[in-house]
């Protein structure tokens, strides 16, 4: 089976997902799956995602005008009746919200398995969404050799100490669905991305050389780079922000009080362990923040994440306004 024949299968999947989102009916998707236990779990996941997004959009009274998807195929592994490959889905939603037209985008990286049963059907479709439990993310194997100046021993203290919100937001949009090669990327990348945004806005690192203190990254994207927990771990950045030791912040009560470049922390199940961070990049027509994030790469996403499977009725938020 050639790549030219694989692509129409993925295109059909994306078209049916888009139609399901627009119609609220996921039944047409089942025709593309093998029907075994793995594929049934995939369909259950799609159904839950659809329900969460429909609920969130209805709650905000958002009117969806369209959904488009771009697909980028990766390399494949083939046997007689099985094909495994990766592909990237970049989906854009366009809708009216609080009297204003806006768009929202997400990038989803799939690892898909097709099985031939008279025709090629989906046996498995794995992709990550927001992590539901706290984790210490591992750096990904891919790394660069040399890109820019090394960031060693707090060289960033020479940066502008006043927070440049426009620069932070520019960086957030530039790298919303990719990784800056001057930094390592992580299996769970949300906090590494937010830390880079803060750094791009001029927040100086607090270099201690100790993994459990300060807020710092040392290196240039190579395999020997080092970093603090607070740079890359959601729970650690939350407590570093609260400490007031390196980044001057004010905790505010409402998301509406935040400005572009400010930070939101998420505790999905309300147990005091924080699993996710995002950065504010703008507002909808009602003055509610829109955010960018990594892991499930998102651009202009509504801040409360009620469209995510990680969200629960116990979800807690922290709103941090940068004062520097």
Task: Summarize the structure in words.
The structure is a single chain. The chain is α+β, with helices and mostly antiparallel strands. The chain has 2 domains: 3-126, Roll (Nuclear Transport Factor 2, Chain: A), CATH 3.10.450.50; 155-322, Alpha-Beta Complex (endopeptidase fold (from Nostoc punctiforme)). It has 6 helices and 12 strands. It has helices at 3-23, 37-59, 165-174, 190-200, 229-232, 234-243; strands at 63-78, 82-97, 100-116, 120-126, 217-218, 226-227, 249-252, 263-267, 276-283, 289-293, 297-302, 316-322. Helix 3 (165-174) crosses helix 4. The N and C termini lie far apart (57 Å). Mean pLDDT is 89; it is low at 152-158.
Looking at this protein, list some descriptive labels.
2 domains; 10-stranded antiparallel beta sheet; alpha+beta; 24% helix; endopeptidase fold (from Nostoc punctiforme); 6 helices; 324 residues
Give a summary of the structure in a few sentences.
The protein has 324 residues and is of the alpha+beta class. It is 24% helix and 29% strand.
How far apart the termini lie comes to 57 Å
CATH homologous superfamily label of the largest domain: endopeptidase domain like (from Nostoc punctiforme)
Query: What's the overall geometry?
Result: globular
CATH topology of the largest domain: endopeptidase fold (from Nostoc punctiforme)
